[in-house]
């Protein structure tokens, strides 16, 4: 089933009777070549690229809940390639290029909107850091423009430019950054993988991993045992728990991150904005809601809901930056469980168990990584070699200390820095 303007017109005129489910609802088979644990954005994109780029289609994605129920459907949808460190820079550049072809590739409107991102700075030192980051982005082949205060004012005249503590000095503008419709991305990859023969199995919790003499043999699930030669663990906030089934202790902490949405307003914010003196960022959805968030809740938790102190912290930062937001009513908020790594950068690697692969540590920035991660992880699982854009996401960097990529210099304990 392909989507097109013509198809929508035809279905509209004939009672919408021709649409079929986007993916099948198969019973799990007893054996697959590859099992992907976790049907979030990363698991689904891995299965999709595994089938599309490597021709491996005897694959199942095992999801304990429903597609889009995890962080892939809970995030604030910012998509960007504005990282500064080698390792991250080429990876997110690769991912953004995949974003730019995604809608054609998946034949689905993921509402990818390159409305631009402005990272504000509020001191001379921060301007230097922004300029350095912008140069790294340009060297990587991505786009970056250093705006002065008047340049920012043209995009966002409503900011409190003269705030006595944190006056706005300027911003690093990344025009190709933007937003997308998060669940559409999950649906698109699920549909694309299913069309190529991958089994998407929902309501199937992995409860154990079967290993013999250091080699993976399969998994136990709530719907029976499944054998496989290769198993990818891609479960975001549950990474520690699932890896423990294989006897591994990961350098990952699970923390809650909240998101907030205001009542629908007329269009007033047409880029993504980030505050430079606190963790606060904001965009406006196509429905009109102001979508914003801030820092993690500062203690490890598996509860997919947030707490009031972090909410107050975010609201205070919002009021500091744009006092006008105080007139908007908050409509809803929610939380997601983040897989925080010690250096804030992810892991895409093999493990010491033959056939078990690991993809985690996306912290609060893994939505933009969904295509890049799927393409890199499927490459690693299919060929045994690291994808050229993801050679540095090694698990052993936390044991050896070599190759740490601390983009923000905060790691998982943001409150301690
Ligand atoms: C509030 C919030 C805002 C965010 N904002 C942004 C943003 O603006 N930009 C950005 O780039 N990133 C953002 N992120 C981060 C991003 O959402 C995550 O890094 C990313 O979605 C994680 O990867 P995933 O999609 O594969 O995770 P998930 O969707 O969580 O997928 C993991 C899946 O594994 C399943 N699972 C777990 N255990 C098992 C098991 N035992 N058996 C079977 N299945 C299992 C879960 O049910 C889940 O569906 C945000 C996150 C949150 C919570």
Q: How would you explain this protein's 3D organization?
A:
- The longest helix has 19 residues, at 88-106.
- The chain has two domains: 5-77 and 182-251 and 343-416, FAD/NAD(P)-binding domain (3-Layer(bba) Sandwich); 113-177 and 253-340, D-Amino Acid Oxidase, Chain A, domain 2 (2-Layer Sandwich).
- The protein has helices at 5-13, 41-54, 88-106, 124-139, 149-155, 182-195, 239-245, 308-321, 370-383, 397-400, and strands at residues 31-37, 59-62, 78-79, 117-121, 145-148, 170-174, 178-179, 199-201, 206-212, 215-221, 224-233, 253-264, 272-274, 281-284, 289-300, 330-340, 347-350, 356-360.
- Helix 2 packs parallel to helix 6 and helix 2 packs across helix 9 (370-383).
- The N and C termini lie far apart (51 Å).
- It is globular, with a radius of gyration of 21 Å.
- The chain is an alpha/beta fold and 417 residues long.
- The chain has ten helices and 18 strands.
- Strands 1, 2, 8, 9, 10, 11, 17 and 18 form an eight-stranded mixed β-sheet that branches. The chain has an eight-stranded mixed β-sheet with strand order 5-6-4-13-14-15-12-16. The chain has a two-stranded antiparallel ribbon with strand order 3-7.
- Flavin-adenine dinucleotide (FAD) is lined by residues 37-43, 62-65, 69-72, 74-78, 205-206, 234-238, 242, 257-259, 293, 336, 338, 362, 364-368.
């Amino acid at each position: 089933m392909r989507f097109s303007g013509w198809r929508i017109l035809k279905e509209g005129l004939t009672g919408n009777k021709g649409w079929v489910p986007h993916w099948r609802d198969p019973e799990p088979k007893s054996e697959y070549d590859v099992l992907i644990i976790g049907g979030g954005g990363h698991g689904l994109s891995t299965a999709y690229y595994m089938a599309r780029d490597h021709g491996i289609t005897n694959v199942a994605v095992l999801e304990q809940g429903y597609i889009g129920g995890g962080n892939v459907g809970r995030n604030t949808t910012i998509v960007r390639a504005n990282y500064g460190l080698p390792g991250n820079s080429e990876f997110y550049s690769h991912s953004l290029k995949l974003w730019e072809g995604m809608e054609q590739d998946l034949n689905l409107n993921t509402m990818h909107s390159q409305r631009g991102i402005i990272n504000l700075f509020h001191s001379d030192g921060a301007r230097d850091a922004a300029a350095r980051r912008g140069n790294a982005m340009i060297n990587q082949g991505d786009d970056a423009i250093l705006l002065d205060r008047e340049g920012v004012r043209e995009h966002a005249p409503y900011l409190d430019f003269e705030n006595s503590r944190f006056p706005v000095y300027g911003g690093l503008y990344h025009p190709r950054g933007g937003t997308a419709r998060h669940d559409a991305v999950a649906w698109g990859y699920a549909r694309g993988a299913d069309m190529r023969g991958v089994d998407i199995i929902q309501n199937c919790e992995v409860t154990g991993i079967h290993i013999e003499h250091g080699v993976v043999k399969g998994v136990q699930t709530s719907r029976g045992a499944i054998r496989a030669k290769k198993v990818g663990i891609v479960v975001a906030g549950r990474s520690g728990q699932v890896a423990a089934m294989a006897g591994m202790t990961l350098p990952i902490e699970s923390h809650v991150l909240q998101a907030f949405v205001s009542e629908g307003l007329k269009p007033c914010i047409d880029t993504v904005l980030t505050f430079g003196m606190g963790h606060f960022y904001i965009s406006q959805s196509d429905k009109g809601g102001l979508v914003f968030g801030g820092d993690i809740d500062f203690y490890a938790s598996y509860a997919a809901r947030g707490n009031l102190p972090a909410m107050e912290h975010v609201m205070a930062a919002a009021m500091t930056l744009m006092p006008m937001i105080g007139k908007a009513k908050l409509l809803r908020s929610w939380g997601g469980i983040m897989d925080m790594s010690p250096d804030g950068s992810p892991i895409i690697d093999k493990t010491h168990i033959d056939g078990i692969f690991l993809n985690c540590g996306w912290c609060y920035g893994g939505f933009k990584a969904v295509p890049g991660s799927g393409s890199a992880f499927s490459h690693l699982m299919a060929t045994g070699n690291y994808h050229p854009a993801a050679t540095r996401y090694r698990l052993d960097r936390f044991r050896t200390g070599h190759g740490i990529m601390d983009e923000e210099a905060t790691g998982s304990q943001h409150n301690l820095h």
